[in-house]
């Protein structure tokens, strides 16, 4: 069984404020369906409007935190996972701590006393989610926190690391420290493309981290944006996955594997210049509640098998299972026990 604290995640802890809204609401705040963006001033009133107008649920989220919680759930071994990020000293922050500890994750938050805990508006229309993140305290993460012995020990204990691309907007230095540690110690470092805007506007910091990535996760939209930004002149997801897997690597211990999800279409896995396709579990439309957390859950399921050194087929299968469970529920939530074999 996976040993204690084998998997460490680092990212932006956000409280998801999730509600089923209407097209009008999306138009009013200039939100595209199935997208993920950072809040601008024009978006700030939407959080209160959502709370007052719609039936809102609050769920401890943020991409990396979601994935780590799902991996922890799949592993069913208390303390197998750890998570680092920044929250505010407020009721949302307290809520987050409670939620994560209850999930069995060993959390070490940096608590910022000036900014409130970050929130993410999850606007659900027709089962598709669109995310608007107001990072607040999540944006205040400091490398000094990571370097403190009681936190760095989590980096040393872990053998696998997962960081969503969103954290590139907050603390590229922290990512670099963990990435270099992984490469120097033959550990497995994984990241996610996370959103088209990361590939476009944070290209430089993403490229700095890329050589260290042993696994790159993403979805088809992010893969195509990555291809365009790098001048690859191809929209073909399989080709793009291969090209990403063949970019230079910082350590020769592990080859890079690219894993791209495509909604209901097969998962694309590229390694050694070849592609394998894995079908997902199809879900009848009426069973789809919302797609929020589907990609995060996929990664969490995948990692739960990876840390047990299972073959890639098992990893993808577990990823598809976890995503299938999550899209039948509101937000990135799951039942008490997984039924995965």
UniProtKB/TrEMBL annotation:
Q: Where is the signal peptide?
A: none
Write down the chemical reaction(s) this protein catalyses: adenosine + ATP = AMP + ADP + H(+)
Give the GO cellular component terms, alphabetically.
Answer: cytosol; nucleus
- Is the keyword tRNA processing assigned to this protein? no
Q: What is its EC number?
A: 2.7.1.20
- Residue limits of the Carbohydrate kinase PfkB domain? 25-335
Query: Which cofactor(s) does the record list?
Result: Mg(2+)
Pfam families from the xrefs? Answer: PfkB (PF00294)
Spell out the molecular function terms from Gene Ontology.
adenosine kinase activity; ATP binding
GO BP, one example?
A: purine nucleobase metabolic process
Superkingdom field? Eukaryota
* Main enzyme class: transferase
Which InterPro entries does the UniProt record give? Adenokinase, Carboh/pur_kinase_PfkB_CS, PfkB_dom, Ribokinase-like
Q: In which pathway does it act?
A: Purine metabolism; AMP biosynthesis via salvage pathway; AMP from adenosine: step 1/1
Q: Does the keyword Ubl conjugation apply?
A: no
Keyword set for this entry? ATP-binding, Host-virus interaction, Kinase, Magnesium, Nucleotide-binding, Purine salvage, Transferase
The record ties this protein, via PANTHER family, to: ADENOSINE KINASE
Concerning its family, UniProt says:
Belongs to the carbohydrate kinase PfkB family.
Q: Could you tell me what this protein is called?
A: Adenosine kinase
Q: What organism is recorded for this protein? A: Pyrus ussuriensis x Pyrus communis
């Amino acid at each position: 069984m996976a040993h204690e604290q084998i998997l460490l995640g680092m990212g932006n802890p956000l409280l998801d404020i999730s509600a089923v809204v209407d097209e009008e609401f999306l138009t009013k705040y200039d939100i595209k369906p199935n997208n993920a963006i950072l809040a601008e001033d024009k978006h700030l009133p939407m959080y209160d409007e959502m709370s007052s107008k719609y039936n809102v649920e609050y769920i401890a989220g943020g991409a990396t935190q979601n994935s780590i919680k799902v991996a922890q759930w799949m592993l069913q071994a208390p303390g197998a996972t750890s998570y680092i990020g920044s929250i505010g000293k407020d009721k949302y922050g307290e809520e987050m701590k409670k939620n994560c500890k209850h999930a069995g994750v060993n959390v070490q938050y940096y608590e910022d006393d000036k900014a409130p805990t970050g929130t993410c508006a999850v606007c659900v229309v027709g089962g598709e989610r669109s995310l608007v993140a107001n990072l607040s305290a999540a944006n205040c993460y400091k490398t000094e926190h990571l370097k403190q012995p009681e936190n760095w020990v989590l980096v040393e204990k872990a053998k696998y690391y997962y960081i969503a691309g969103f954290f590139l907007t907050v603390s590229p230095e922290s990512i670099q420290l963990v990435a270099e540690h992984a490469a120097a110690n033959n550990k497995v470092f994984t990241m996610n493309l996370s959103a088209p805007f990361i590939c476009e506007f944070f290209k430089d910091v993403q490229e700095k981290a890329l050589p260290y990535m042993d696994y790159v996760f993403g979805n088809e939209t992010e893969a195509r944006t990555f291809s365009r930004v790098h001048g690859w002149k191809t929209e073909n997801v399989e080709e793009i996955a291969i090209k990403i897997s063949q970019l230079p690597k910082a350590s020769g211990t592990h080859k890079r594997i690219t894993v791209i999800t495509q909604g209901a279409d097969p998962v694309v896995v590229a390694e050694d210049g070849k592609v394998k396709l894995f079908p997902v579990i199809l879900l009848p439309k009426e069973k789809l509640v919302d797609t929020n957390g589907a990609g995060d859950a996929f990664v969490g399921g995948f990692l739960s098998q990876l840390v047990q050194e299972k073959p890639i087929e098992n990893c993808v299968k577990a990823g598809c299972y976890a995503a299938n469970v999550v899209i039948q529920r509101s937000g990135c939530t799951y039942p008490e026990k997984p039924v995965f074999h």
